[in-house]
Amino acid sequence: MREKSLKSSRKVPGYKAAEEWPVLAGFVKAYWLFTGGVILEYDRTVRTYFGVLTENSEKREERMSEKRLIRTMCPMNCLPTQCGMRVEVEGNQLLSVKGDEQHPESRGFLCIRGRATREIPHNPARLLTPIRRKRRGEDAWEPCSWDDAYTMIVEAIERTQRDRVGLWRGHGVGSTGINTPLITRFGSLGGFQHWVSAIVCWALGGYGLGLTGVLKTNTKVDMAAHSRMVFFWGATLASQPGTSPYLVAARKRGAYVVHIDTRRTEASRHADEVVLIRPGTDAALALAMAHVIVEEGLTDQAFVQEYTLGFAEFADHLRQYTPEWGARQTGIDPEQIRHLARLYATRTPAMIVLGGSSMYKHQHGWEASRAIACLPALTGQLGIAGGGLGPRHGATAQANGLADVTADVVRPQGSYIPSHMASITEALTSGSLDVLLLLGANFLSGFADSNTVERGLEKVGLIVSYDIFMNETIRRVADLVLPGTIWLEELGLKQTATHLYLMEPALQPVGEVRPLSRVLRELAERLDIPDVFPWQDDEAYINALLSTQKLPSGEALTVAELRKQGGYWQKTALSEVAYPDRRFDTPSKKVEFWSERALQAGLSPLPSFTPAVEEEATRYPLRFCQGRTLTAFHSFYDEGKVLPTLAKANPEPEIWLHPNDARPRKIETGNRVLISNGHGHFEAKALVTEGILQGVVWMRDGWSGVNRVTSGQQTVPLVANDIIADIPGGQATYDAWVDLQNV
């Protein structure tokens, strides 16, 4: 399969096949040194704590025949990274978790998050039976049977209208890669509310890219082989550690790496140049760079003329965005903006690796990706090896994906709430929902303005959570909890931008846990909703998903065939380079500097920048930001607290602030501080560091209380919410201006 892909790649202009560039032996393992002491060893104490007791050598010898090595995937959803995993089991006990050295992409790497997953199966905090709250307002629970749980749900649904029932899915049900289409089928056929949960994550960035028309990305293999310039723009290696060795390989080959962010991260260690800009000013930097590129004649006129729309209007529009203007917005020097523009336009091929979520979490976040996507179009860097955009959360490469198994679904008429966070919050607070099913989601952790959201949840008659551990939302508002299986107890299928991976079951389900596919089927039967699961079993369902993947014979790939392939499959029709045909994701099939869709929806038709509204800044002078770290993933596993490895790495919430902000407040590293504004407050431990800009504070997302201070206002009006196919602009703003004081 690999040879076929490389041959097809040679048809792309400027593409040099991967086997023609020197392979850097051991480059993956060399890179992983960047984690330093972060990866913690799974010591004897932890093993004993979870009942995986060490046996003497004689007894172990006797039991060797019962041991099995099974290849699977890490249950984390660190897209675009998905790492291979090899587990050792004996009986129904998990003995060890290691990286899969034969995995085509991760090559044996498994970060601290993946290594910590061995603490899940036999964890004493794991939910093993349905439980229901005794009385609202009290954190008091009692066990109940599955029949009783189903009866509670069905009776609550039957007492109301179907469109007053909501389904919200989180990353938790993505651990095996196959549940999202089933939730869509169940929700649509049942006439329930269900939403694209990417609106709390990567969708707003995708929305801006979709307006310009540049959604697909080149691969990390292409970056390693061909990029001479890499802009790591708002992207962190915590989100995509699997990209790291390819970035290292590109740099060893001579590529120049620039890291643009609001703070120093692990990606800064691999950059030749680090540029720290004010939060929310990425669009301003991109527009000022575009001004320089046009003003100095650094555009690729042939590409612009043939493959773009609205250049004349865009060029005229750019006159106002001088480097001096950009400097006032971003806080960096005008000459540095000129330097970055010239570097990007002349050291080609140049690739931009965009952040997937955090850089868009402000009032006008979509403007950043809208403007940045114009840079490769101005310089002719699209559709060529080493150029374009690089791996990004929520993006796809140029390849066949999985089949749409919801295409036959017809949703009954109803009053449906769009995938628009402000509208969902309003529906909650107005009492428009009577039943809410939370599927692998910590709702209060994910939504902005969680204080208002919680008040709305209190008006919902029945809140059901399907999960494997307790979390903040369950403790505060859920009425019924359904225990789910974990990734090692199900058959699954995960995908990256370039590959598909089979996940074989390794353990038998414990207690009374059930897979989500079974829960949805059984609820559908009780509610008389036909065709939710029209397949014989999970393997037949996965075969349907695989039907777009073709064997050399022309027949569709199946689970049986995937097993023969070792569980790995390179996607059919993969090109390492996106848009080799220069047909882009817009109605015109051109890159649209001028967007008629945006104009009709009341947005600026040209890329724009809107400064942050700083009404609260006089009272609350610090700009609050949040993002990811390598040692956690959102609020997974009760904020990481139930897994000893992650709990040791993240013992409590920690907030970064600059020494010049700490000094007048008499705050020192380690102090307990109160973070507050007009919306709410929470506490954290202070970390005083020059790794962040003055006037900005930052902390890891997922902690309980973080979103008590965030705004929750809409970023895109409803009329513009759905103008990009399958990518709503419905994120609410996570903007916050705060102040800190010692507790």
Automatic annotation (TrEMBL):
<dbReference type="InterPro" id="IPR006963">
    <property type="entry name" value="Mopterin_OxRdtase_4Fe-4S_dom"/>
</dbReference>
<keyword id="KW-0479">Metal-binding</keyword>
<dbReference type="GO" id="GO:0051536">
    <property type="term" value="F:iron-sulfur cluster binding"/>
</dbReference>
<dbReference type="Pfam" id="PF01568">
    <property type="entry name" value="Molydop_binding"/>
</dbReference>
<dbReference type="GO" id="GO:0016491">
    <property type="term" value="F:oxidoreductase activity"/>
</dbReference>
<keyword id="KW-0411">Iron-sulfur</keyword>
<dbReference type="InterPro" id="IPR009010">
    <property type="entry name" value="Asp_de-COase-like_dom_sf"/>
</dbReference>
<keyword id="KW-0408">Iron</keyword>
<dbReference type="GO" id="GO:0046872">
    <property type="term" value="F:metal ion binding"/>
</dbReference>
<dbReference type="InterPro" id="IPR006656">
    <property type="entry name" value="Mopterin_OxRdtase"/>
</dbReference>
<dbReference type="Pfam" id="PF04879">
    <property type="entry name" value="Molybdop_Fe4S4"/>
</dbReference>
<comment type="similarity">
    <text>Belongs to the prokaryotic molybdopterin-containing oxidoreductase family.</text>
</comment>
<feature type="domain" description="4Fe-4S Mo/W bis-MGD-type">
    <location>
        <begin position="67"/>
        <end position="125"/>
    </location>
</feature>
<dbReference type="InterPro" id="IPR050612">
    <property type="entry name" value="Prok_Mopterin_Oxidored"/>
</dbReference>
<dbReference type="InterPro" id="IPR006657">
    <property type="entry name" value="MoPterin_dinucl-bd_dom"/>
</dbReference>
<protein>
    <submittedName>
        <fullName>Anaerobic selenocysteine-containing dehydrogenase</fullName>
    </submittedName>
</protein>
<dbReference type="GO" id="GO:0043546">
    <property type="term" value="F:molybdopterin cofactor binding"/>
</dbReference>
<dbReference type="Pfam" id="PF00384">
    <property type="entry name" value="Molybdopterin"/>
</dbReference>
